[in-house]
Design a protein that fits this description.
Elements lengths: L3 E3 L4 E4 L4 E3 L30 H17 L18 H6 L14 H19 L7 E2 L2 E2 L88 E6 L7 E4 L3 E10 L5 E7 L13 E5 L6 E5 L6 E3 L3 E6 L15 E7 L1
Antiparallel strand pairs: 1-2, 2-3, 4-5, 6-14, 7-13, 8-11, 8-12, 8-14, 9-10, 9-13
């Protein structure tokens, strides 16, 4: 039986001579046409072939590399891959002291927005919210004097607002010069006439300016009224100051026991007149009679006003420049004044 043995590369030789070229028709060695097994346990490996030892070494290196590569998104420095920069790169890298970030919402802004949203929610839900200012002015609360912080309310002209009587008193206030119209009703019809009580009306100071209505009847009283003044003539002009300030004369009477007429002169002066120099405002003749004569000088009901003072004198002449005095006790003068 023939044996095969290695020959030149790519060929086999038989012990019986001849050779078989690699890749030719299979060579039948036992006549059964069955491919025979061949053991290659001791055959040498081709140049550069991979072995199990080299594969284990490669797997170990890959595992080491996999453990050193950080996960995506890792932010911790301890788990980061170290990077060595050149000196030139370090010089050009300048850390930023501050970074201006715009359009970013902060916690404080979120809290402010939350507070504002809560106020709006309270108002809508009916819980309400407090208004401390309006247009920059503090809002006045409760009762008190109206000021710039008082809320104004305008009532439509076609709206009817009921007003209570506030326990019997009603105050209607409006700016000076603004007419206010109030319609009062008893519940069924308008009230045309209002009762007025004068029991608690306070007293008011009244000046003499203007025109005043006077009652037709006078009421007697133990106080008030005019002040009385009387003079019995001396042997002079009897220059006299009755009142050293403004006043009103209500009554003048004068009697004369001399047979000749005498003259009574009044001056609007706060001191005794200088007879013959000062000009009298009134001159009255006093008829004479040794048995007694005289005159009641009529004055208006409102009296005669002297704006500076009330003064008088007596002379025997009617002229303003007359300076001759009367005799002692021949003239008696009575005056009532205020």
């Amino acid at each position: 039986m023939s044996r095969l043995s290695p020959g030149a590369p790519g060929n086999f030789s038989s012990s019986g001579g001849g050779s078989v070229t690699q890749g030719t028709t299979p060579w039948v060695v036992d006549g059964s046409a069955v491919t025979q097994p061949i053991s290659v346990a001791s055959l040498p490996l081709p140049l550069g072939a991979a072995t199990a030892t080299k594969q284990d070494t490669g797997n170990t290196s890959l595992s080491s590399i996999d453990g050193k590569v950080p996960s995506l998104g890792q932010a911790l420095a301890a788990a980061s891959t170290p990077v060595v920069l050149t000196a030139a790169q370090i010089t050009t890298l300048t850390p930023l002291a501050t970074v201006a970030v715009t359009g970013v919402s902060t916690l404080a802004e979120q809290q402010t927005q939350t507070t504002a949203l809560q106020l709006i929610d309270n108002a809508i839900s009916g819980a309400g919210f407090n208004i401390t200012q309006q247009n920059g002015v503090a809002v006045s609360l409760n009762t008190g004097v109206r000021d710039t912080g008082t809320q104004r309310v305008t009532i439509a002209t076609n709206d009817v607002v009921p007003v209570t009587d506030n326990a019997g008193s009603l105050t209607v206030d409006a700016p000076v010069g603004t007419p206010v119209f109030v319609r009062l009703s008893d519940g069924s019809s308008a009230i045309a006439t209002l009762p007025v009580s004068l029991a608690s009306v306070p007293s008011h100071a009244v000046t003499n300016a203007g025109t005043f209505a006077v009652q037709a009847s006078l009421i007697a009283a133990t106080t008030g009224g005019a002040t009385a003044y009387k003079l019995v003539s001396a042997a002079t002009t009897n220059a006299t100051n009755v009142k050293a300030s403004a006043g009103t004369v209500y009554m003048i009477t004068a009697s004369n026991v001399n047979a000749a007429v005498r003259y009574l002169k009044f001056y609007n002066k706060a001191s005794a007149p200088t007879v013959g120099t000062d000009t009298p405002v009134f001159t009255f003749a006093i008829p004479g009679n040794t048995a007694g004569a005289g005159t009641n000088i009529p004055l208006p009901a409102m009296g005669v006003n002297f704006g500076t003072g009330i003064s008088f004198a007596t002379t025997t002449e009617a002229t303003d420049a007359g300076t001759t005095g009367v005799a002692i006790s021949e003239i008696v003068i009575n005056i009532a004044y205020i």
